Structure formats: C-alpha cells, structure tokens
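Write out the bound-state structure for adenine.
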Amino acid sequence: MKQRINKKAPFLVIMAMEEEAELLIKTFKLKLQKKPFGDYLPMKTFHGELPSGRPVYLVLPGKDRRFKVNLVGTQLAAVTSAFSINKYMPSAVFNFGTCGALKSKAAKIGDVFYCTDQVWFHSRRIPLPGYDEFSRGGYPCAPLPSLKKKLKVKTGVLSTTDSLDFCSVESERFFDLRADIADMEGAAIAWMADIYRIPFYALKSVTDLMDIKQKPGDQFLKNFQLAVGNLTVQASRLLRSLD
Ligand code: ADE
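---
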C-alpha cells in the first residue's frame, strides 16, 4: 500500500553542503528565495513543487562568513532545522547527505543508506545519571516498509559526530550503539523533527570507509561526486514516492 503523508503540506529537505544539493535543486527546478530568515542568519532556502503540487523547501545552513565554507556540523543543523520547521511547518523532514561507513560490514563507496530505527550521537559523552542516555540521543526515523522496493538502498543505523575522522573514543561509542554509518548532522535534525513530532527521513551516501587506512578527508574528496550522484537519484525517488 502506498504510504501518503498529509496531502499538500510541505516537505522540508535539509542538507549541509551546497555541492551536495546542486543536483537535487536542478532535478526539481527549485528557486532560491531571498533572505528567508532575515539579514543575519546564513541559511538559504530553495523552493519548488513536487509533481502533485506539494511545496518543497530545501534549506541549507549557508556559508561561514569568515572561512567561506559550508556550515557543516550539528550546531547549524539544529539552528537550520529549528528555524525552517517553524517557518514552513512541514509534514515531513528529510535529511540527505554523505556519510562514512564500515568495510567490515560490507559497505561500499557510493552505497546509499536509508536510515532506520533511531539516530544517535557518538561524539557526546556525559557520564552522569540521566545525562548519559541523553548524550546518546536516539531520535526516531520514519519506517518505510512499503517503498523499500522502489529505492535501491541499503538500510542502516545512523550516528552523528562533529568530526570527520574516526578517533578511538568515538569509534568505541559508535560500535556500542550498533551504528552502521556516521554523518555530521543527522541526529541534530532528527532531534528537532522529534521535538515538533514530524516524521524524519534520512538518506546517506557513502564517501568514505572509516575502517581502512586511507584518510577520510582524502576519500571524501575523491568519492564525493559519485556519492552525490547516487544520493540524488534515491532522494528524488523517495520524495516522489511519498508525494
Ligand atoms: N560524512 C562523510 N563521511 C563522514 C565520516 N566519516 N564521519 C562523519 N561524517 C561524514
């Protein structure tokens, strides 16, 4: 049975890097809105319609004023999610992006993962009663059984960090959480979607294998275009299928 979400209510897509979003913006012919969040906040919105006429807003955190790079990471992911959910009142929140994965779990560069169960943080550690569980997060992902056949994706558990490298303290927590893939925004966005009680969907495409010798930054740069191409195909299918 086709799963439908509240007819006509907007979809909100949050991505971290402009270069990750370019193909999706082209695919849906999205148009840049002028200063959607006022003069100071750096976020950018691209707006358009899905085939049914449902509005879709793709929001990016924008660029760092000093360093001229995309504002990747959990801080701006949370700010972007809070402002854009509040402004566009979407019926579903989507996070599309890149991720690191594990060769030991048979992941390959360019694989696209549909994130299942819950999204965690593996970079936060607060060993105090109650705060320990809080630090791990564990925000829900929307289940997607009926569409799985339409998408060429693997499924896996996502965990979020604020660093690209896979240091030993974080990897210990990552394995403890039974996570399959790592990104730098998912849990922050899933947290805000959960606060607003809006279904959260995430697709992540593999740029690097975290358990091989090659540096993650080198792998990321080498594999980025392949990963983004695959991500865009699956993300377009997901949006059209749920529309
Ligand atoms: N995004 C892409 N690769 C990543 C990795 N290895 N860790 C965190 N975020 C990532």
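---
Residues 216-242 form the longest helix (27 residues).
The helical segments are 18-27, 74-88, 131-136, 168-176, 186-195, 216-242.
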